[in-house]
Fold this protein.
Amino acid sequence: MSILHLDTHVAAWLWAGDRTRLRPVWPALVRSDLAISGATILELGFLFEIGRLTEPANLVVKELIGELGLQISGAPLGRVVEEALLLTWTRDPFDRLIAANARCDDARLVTKDRRILDHCPWARWS
């Protein structure tokens, strides 16, 4: 089974049960092991703080772990940061860390973010 890293919006949509938005990637999600970066957890926390999520990040992640077997990447932060420093196409620290973390884990990154898709061959939306 392959490992798919989830971008923050994908994790949030999964947690919310939004299968409509996830339709293009649903077959890949159900047949793969799913993982997230620690940066995804932090970004989910930011989304809760600004009112875009109704539950704190730790509860969202706990539910995803329980329901889907979601894993949290164990890639060393120093290695992820080294890789993120090479991703100079964006100034968004979350995008850089999340994309770099997937690369460090030799995993595909599931995202609908056009900038990531345009610059990261290991990213996909379909």
Summary: The CA atoms of residues 12 and 62 lie 12 Å apart. Helices lie at 8-16, 19-22, 26-30, 38-49, 57-68, 77-84, 93-104, 114-119.
